[in-house]
Amino acid sequence: MKQILGNWDLGYALDKHVISSVYIGDDQYGHSRFETTRSKVGEAMYQLKYQGDWTQVDILAEEIAVNIYPKFDKVEFLIPMPASKVRAKQPVTELTKALGKLVGKPVYENMLIKKPKGTQLKDMATKEKKIEILRDSFSVSDEISNTGTWNALLVDDLFDTGASLEAACAVLRAYPKIKNLYVATLTYKK
Question: How far is Cα of residue 127 from the mean position of the Cα atoms in its chain?
Fold first, then answer.
């Protein structure tokens, strides 16, 4: 587990995403191929996101519930990071809902909204480029009907440069009903 820093109050990532990646040659189309060794959490995340293994959701939610969640002070609701890629079923949303059930907290699936962008963030080389792309891409839907302020946990799958999380947290911080803002991710890149 690693503490991750940003414009949130406290954040953690469970494990490194990739342990090693070795170039093994090109395929018949000229694309580079790699033999990749992932951490236990990284492999589970890969199986969930790219192989459609939905059995990983509860396993990963349990990992966050046991290892990260207790580090935060009085989380009152959870927010999934909106997806960059359209899928029929979103892995981070399903993970957040499973975590919400485990810890007995509500999940606001539609509180944080992300406008569709043409460019995939993973294709951007620097944090500055990502921030430029992300500017004004998030908004908040006022899903809490009563007055007061609460501690929120934003859940995501991968912490790379932190640009997406920082852009999302900047918008969430402006929402007057959030007091403390925490972040939990499954993996980190570097």
Answer: 16
112 has a pLDDT exceeding 70: yes
Backbone angles phi, psi at 145, to 5 degrees: -85, -25
pTM for the model: 0.90
Instruction: List the beta bridge partners of residue 184.
Output: 12, 155
- Paired residues of 22 in beta bridges: 35
Instruction: At 189, list the tokens.
Output: 């890149």
pLDDT digits (tens, 9 = 90+) for 13-50: 999 999 999 999 999 999 999 999 999 999 999 999 99
- Find, among 3, 57, 12, 31, the residue nearest to 183 by Cα: 12
Q: How far apart are CA 5 and CA 182, in angstroms?
A: 10
| Nearest one of 179, 159, 165, 146 to 74, comparing CA atoms | 179
Ordered by where they begin, the domains of the chain are 2-188 (3.40.50)
Which of 88, 71, 68 has the alpha carbon at shortest distance from 156?
Answer: 68
- Sorted by sequence, the CB contacts under 8 Å of residue 189 that are 6+ apart come out as 16, 17, 18, 158, 159, 160
